[in-house]
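Morning - adenosine-5'-triphosphate inputs below, output right after.
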Amino acid sequence: MAHTLPARRVGMFGGAFDPPHWAHRALAETALRQLGLDVLHILPTGHAWHKSRVLSSAEDRVAMCELAFGDLPKVQLDEREIHREGPSYTADTLRELQREYPQAQLFLVLGADQLLAFRNWVRWQEVLDLATLAVANRATNIGADAPLDQATETDLSGVDLPFEPLHMPLKNISATAVRARVGRHTRSQDALDVLVPEPVARYISQHHLYQPPT
Ligand code: ATP
């Protein structure tokens, strides 16, 4: 009888995903390919301790993650942080994954902005002990009005932390820019296709997400 081998290279990719966009998807695809992952857990955050903005409902963010990542082989949408009581810390999630995959090497997938803020994370040393950081570069200017076609790489040469660079073309997209664009356009779906996969654009429009208060 054939036995499934235990996963040996396990990735974790967390985010608010409010909404998930093309750069998130590119990051997941790059991590799977470049790191040769057996599985990549995508974890929408519950109460993100470092985000002050009120997030869209977990139900909407999970549904959009399903639409954005669901067709990628080896991706597992993982809702544990959403169901966790209180604030959610990456160190706790990595500990759980370590228990679930005792033989595996764990990778934490993140963008350059998060690497630069990494020493502010709760129990960041523990995170480093548990996982290899795998980092995609990100444009220096990532605000709501950052031009899509003018991206300058973030300089990571001074970062005094071990990490493995992920190689993917810079995509100057942020969830902030997506939300701002929806707020500005009444017929937003067309304009959104360059920022998010088409099913996500449709979901945003059908569920009236990110509309300015009337
Ligand atoms: P917001 O604009 O609301 O802060 P975001 O676009 O940064 O959101 P998150 O869900 O907070 O999206 O990001 C999840 C992870 O994806 C983080 O590690 C972040 O660094 C990474 N990431 C997001 N956008 C990009 C991008 N354009 N290039 C590389 N990494 C990215």
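Note: The two ends are 62 Å apart (CA to CA).

O.
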